[in-house]
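Entry 0007
Protein: Lipoprotein
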Amino acid sequence: MRKAAQIAGAAAIAAMLLSGCGSSSEGDEESKPSQSADGADKPASGIDGAWQSKSANGTVTLAVIGESATLSTGKTACQGTVQDMGTTMLALKCSDGDDTRSMGTVKQTGDKLTVSWKNGPTEEFTKTEGKVEIPKPDLPSGTN
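Output (structure tokens):
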């Protein structure tokens, strides 16, 4: 039941991103403040949006809203935060406990986002526009 709730949370964040955000120019995106849980304005992460990459196992989708990040591989769902540690980092926790994509260093070049995962591959994501198909993770039986 807990895994289903984690996946539902990840899907909700992705759905908000995909349905509620329009595109903006790169310059505007970095200057927009976002609100933290305590109500204080914080700068947007600069990588807000939906991103997709192809891996040997299928499509990997990354959704970023401010300081929140969700990743779906079709086999697992991960959620966490975007952190500024001198460089932009993703800190994620995956529903199946896999740590392959738990900590990644992010580099953005135009509409490309390269994430070098500490315990996994380096992946190049492309910014997507419009509707994005979020791969549904394989759930253990009885969690529907």
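Curator remark: The CA atoms of residues 1 and 66 lie 28 Å apart. The domain at 2-23+47-127 is CATH 2.40.128 (Lipocalin).
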